[in-house]
Amino acid sequence: MNKQHSDEAEDGVNFVDIERDWVAGRIYPDFRWRPYDDFSPYHPLRVPLAKTRVAFVTTAGAHLTSQVPFDIDSKSGDPSYRAFPSTTPLDDVVLTHTGYDTRRAALDKNVVLPLDHLREAERAGRIGELAPTVYACMGYVADTDPLIDDTAPEIAARLCDEQVDLVLLAPT
User: Fold this and answer.
1) Which pLDDT band, with edges at 50, 70 and 90, does 39 fall under?
2) Residue 133 backbone phi and psi in degrees, to 5
3) Which helix H or strand E contains 25, and what residues bound it?
4) Which helix (H) or strand (E) covers residue 105, if one does?
5) How many independent structural domains does the chain possess?
6) pTM, entire model
């Protein structure tokens, strides 16, 4: 098991345990962290990384200034998503989320939405290309049924339509 899933606390606070206990106490009593340190034998990358079409999906609550913000007042969370072009300048992206300090992340949006780094990886030939669309959700969703039943399958279908080879999912 890697350190992020260990019982070791940093600076006296073990956020892994705090988050696990919060989820288990409020949503899923049997919740346990499941590390995924190995590549999936079920879905191997079928093309070399330098030829892949890479998509980015985030739970950072990212959206365009012209889009409706995520509902941060809902007690059950907002299970919707926003889609926007991967060519969007980060200055045109807003972060709306209740689960982290978006003011700090807004100072360098690449910490939650590393589009500049992915664009550089594309220019350098480390990836084939960045998929045309970024998909963003808000990470805090206590009522997960709409997310699992509707949002995730819709995003997955759109990723398939865009012929994505690899999806980077960045939770917040």
Assistant:
1) low
2) -130, 140
3) helix 15-26
4) helix 102-107
5) 1
6) 0.78
